[in-house]
Amino acid sequence: MRVLIADDDFVNRKFLGKLFAEYGEVVTVDNGMEAVDEAVKAIEEHNEFDLICLDIMMTKLDGYKTLAAIREAERKLEVSKKDCAKVIMISALDEVVAESIQVCDDYDAYICKPIVVDKLNALLLEMGLTK
């Protein structure tokens, strides 16, 4: 599995990077603009990410705008719907707020910080990214 992690918090990036390293290649960036650049580069090189984790509140470009730009690039570069990256939005919002947020067509899941490893592993299994 190839994973792109975008989070402006160093500790969160390191934690997620270490967690996902056991599943495959991990690329970490600290803002939304870099995430878009990495995702587009991966598509152009035919080495797309299987999973993209986006912090919602990032510098330069928030998670939602980052996701919109990535999805637009996938459309322009004619990535088929089935080959588009799975996306998990990550936020420090509390779980009550998170549960009221609906997963939309552009992203697949929403998780709250602090990230609980067992919940994340169950989510990856549910998304078909792990066995």
Question: What do you see in this structure?
Answer:
By secondary structure, the chain is an alpha/beta fold. The chain has one domain: 3-Layer(aba) Sandwich (Rossmann fold), CATH 3.40.50. The protein is 42% helix and 19% strand. The chain is built from 5 helices and 5 strands. It has a 5-stranded parallel β-sheet, sandwiched between helices. Helix 3 links the parallel strand 3 and strand 4. Helix 2 runs parallel beside helix 3. The longest helix has 14 residues. The termini are close together.
Span from first to last CA?
A: 12 Å
Poorly predicted tracts of residues: 95-100
Helix-strand sequence: EHEHEHEHEH
Q: CATH homologous superfamily, by name?
A: Response regulator
Radius of gyration: 14 Å
- Neighbour order of strands in the largest sheet: 2-1-3-4-5
Under the CATH scheme, which class? Alpha Beta
Strand elements, count: 5
What is the approximate shape?
globular
Q: Using the coordinates shown, work out and report the CATH topology.
A: Rossmann fold
| Structural class by SSE content | alpha/beta
Q: What assembly state would you assign to the polypeptide chains in this entry?
A: single chain
Helix content: 40-55%
Supply the number of structural domains.
1
H/I helix tally: 5
Mean pLDDT: 89
CATH architecture: 3-Layer(aba) Sandwich
Largest sheet: 5 strands, parallel
Strand content: 15-25%
